[in-house]
Amino acid sequence: TTSGAQTMVNNEDQQQQLQQQQFEEQQRQQQEEQQRQQQQQQEQQRLQLQAEQQRQQLQVERERQQQQEQQEQQQRLEQAEKERQDALLQQQQQAQRAGENVQAQLSELQNEILKMKSGNNEASSEMGRAIAITRAIVPYDPK
Prior knowledge:
Region (Disordered): 1-23, 58-103
Number of strands: 0
Low-confidence stretches: none
């Protein structure tokens, strides 16, 4: 019954081959699963890295915007201060010119007053001479 023994050996060989195929299939599936998990993990890490880079870029952009807004605010404040200083300087110059005008008018009035006094003194002294001449000509009679 060599043919029976041969059939048994063939069955055992087939059984071993089937087990070997199942083992290899299981190994292949495990490797595929490990590869899939590894790829998924790498993709997740890539996405996390990308998200972190975007977050950092947004932070840098926010800081840049804040800095720009602060610079613009500082420039507006400086411009407002410059305009205020210019207006104050103009007011001071106008007040100084007005003061100078008043001073000039006052000096002019004082000169006019001096001329009038001087003119009155001359008129007074001329009047005195006329009276003296008149007295010399016409004797004074207090009656």
